[in-house]
Amino acid sequence: MASVSSNEHTKEKYSFVYGDEAVSYHVIRKAFPGGKARKIAIRVHPDGEIIVTAPDDAGYSDIHEAVMKRAKWILDAIVEFRSHQKYVQTRHYVSGEMQFYLGRRYVLKVIEEKGAAASVKMNRGKLLVSLPRFDSKKTSLVKGLVNDWYKYRAECIFQERLQYLLPQATWVKGIPGFRILPMQKQWGSCSARGALMLNPHLIKAPKECIDYVILHELCHIAEHNHSERFWRLLTQVMPHWKEVKSRLDSMAELYLNE
């Protein structure tokens, strides 16, 4: 799900039929700098949306042919994501709900006590949220406190992992800046100037998955698209990245669920 940022134009909507199922997909046109690989890339997001990134002058027949060649893979991905969604329930931010942090599950416990300071802390397998009052806004208060806690922890851990991984990314000069940005369909992105954006929900995943996303984006500093050189570079710094990515994707619906 990690991806490089790009100048996206209006999405074009098309569809295809595979077996008994009609599938819609969106095409985003992209201008490729001279000498860069001009490939048609297909991505299936956890919510089932299919995005096809194609050169700005690619013909519809070429795009459709590329999609049909991967039709079975697309349907398999959709079916897999649908199976994950069966276990995703709307969060109400009440005691007993499950929260994630660094790949581990924690039970949310909300404590309301008059005069208490609003706070979030972890203790013995629980994520404890203290509230200073009882009122009808409890759900939004707990959600806000939990999200702020995730963002704070994300800033700390992402900085720590970035510092740890930078020696492997020998092509990166200096320390790239990064900021935390909630995203619905991406774990991270990299600007043309080499600034990273990382999703705070990523802090719910194991450190190895966090490392994968950071390394993915660091590779984009050297190669701004998913060319063969990009994948070789990523394999060089994380040989088992496919397994790690699969692990992260398999939990995406749960980690991104608010």
Automatic annotation (TrEMBL):
This is M48 family metallopeptidase. It comes from Endozoicomonas euniceicola. Pfam families: YgjP-like. It comes from the Bacteria. Residues 38-250 form the YgjP-like metallopeptidase domain.
